[in-house]
Design a protein that fits this description.
Layout: H1 2-12, E1 21-28, E2 35-43, E3 48-49, E4 55-56, H2 82-92, H3 95-98, H4 106-116, H5 121-134, H6 139-160, H7 167-183, H8 187-199, H9 206-220
Antiparallel strand pairs: 1-2, 3-4
Bound molecules: zinc ion (ZN).
Length: about 240
C-alpha cells in the first residue's frame, strides 16, 4: 500500500522544497547475476498533483526501477529470500516473461511480476498506472496501459466492496476509473461512474469528492486532457 499512502499524503501535506536529485547506482541481478548500473531517483518536489495522482514538478514520476538489461527482471526488493528468487527464476525464464515486447516499460514488467506474485489488484493497478506515466510519449502504449489499469481497478473495486475497512481504497479504485475513462475520451462511462460514486458519499477523502465534481464538468465539456488537483481550489464551492 506504499503508493497509496504517498497519494493520501500528497493530498494533505504542504509542499516541502527540494529539487529532483538522482544518482547512478550499481546493481547485481538476483536472477541472472548480471552486474549493471542504473540511474535512481533520490528526492524531488511535487508542486501539484494531476487528477490521476501523478505528481507534477521537479520530481521523477514514477521513481525509476532498476531493470536488469540481460534477463529484464525488475529489482523491486533488494532483500528477496533464496526461496523467492528460485520461484521468481521460473517466471523470469518462462515464455510469458521472455516474450514480453522490449518496448514495454519497467513498471509494466514489474506489474507482470506482481501478478505472478498474486499481489492484490489494487496494488497491481497502481503499478500499471505508473507504467502509463512512463509511456506518456507513446500514445499507443499509454492507451494499452490505461486500459489495463482500468481493468485492474475494476477488479479491485469488486473485491474491496465486501471489505468495509477498505473504504478509502474502494473510493480511489472507482475515482481512478472515472479519471482514466475520461483520459481515453469515454466520457459516458466516466460520468456514469462519477454519478454512482457521488450518490454513495460516505464522507471519505472529501477533497476527492470535489475532484469527482470536476470530472463531471470536464466530461461535459468533452475535455480528455490532463488537469491538476490545484484546480479544485480555483472554484468557490
Ligand atoms: Zn538479470
Amino acid at each position: 500500500m506504499k503508493i497509496f499512502s504517498t497519494i493520501l499524503l500528497a493530498l494533505i501535506q504542504p509542499i516541502t522544497s527540494l529539487a529532483h536529485t538522482g544518482e547512478i547506482q550499481n546493481f547485481t541481478c538476483p536472477i541472472c547475476d548480471e552486474e549493471f548500473k542504473a540511474e535512481q531517483d533520490l528526492s524531488g518536489t511535487a508542486l501539484d498533483t494531476r487528477l490521476d495522482f501523478k505528481q507534477i514538478g521537479p520530481i521523477a514520476q514514477p521513481w525509476k526501477l532498476p531493470q536488469c538489461p540481460k534477463c529484464k527482471f525488475v529489482i523491486y526488493d533488494e532483500n528477496l529470500s533464496p526461496e523467492k528468487i528460485k520461484e521468481l527464476k521460473t517466471f523470469v525464464y518462462s515464455d510469458k516473461y521472455t516474450q514480453i515486447d522490449h518496448k514495454n516499460t519497467p513498471y509494466f514488467y514489474f506489474s507482470q511480476i506482481q501478478l505472478f506474485n498474486k499481489e492484490e489488484p489494487f496494488d497491481v493497478a497502481f503499478i500499471l498506472l505508473s507504467a502509463s506515466w512512463e509511456a506518456e510519449e507513446d500514445p499507443e502504449l499509454y492507451e494499452k496501459y490505461v486500459k489495463m489499469t482500468i481493468a485492474s481497478f475494476k477488479s479491485a473495486q469488486e473485491s474491496l466492496r465486501k471489505d468495509n475497512s477498505m473504504e478509502e481504497e474502494y473510493f480511489v479504485a472507482i475515482y481512478l476509473q472515472i479519471e482514466l475513462n475520461r483520459r481515453l475520451s469515454d466520457f459516458d462511462k466516466s460520468i456514469e461512474l462519477a454519478r454512482k460514486l457521488l450518490k454513495s458519499d460516505t464522507g471519505v477523502v472529501p477533497r476527492l469528492y470535489k475532484a469527482v465534481d470536476l470530472q463531471i464538468k470536464l466530461c461535459e465539456a468533452k475535455d480528455s486532457g490532463p488537469h491538476n488537483l490545484s484546480e479544485l481550489d480555483e472554484t468557490n464551492d
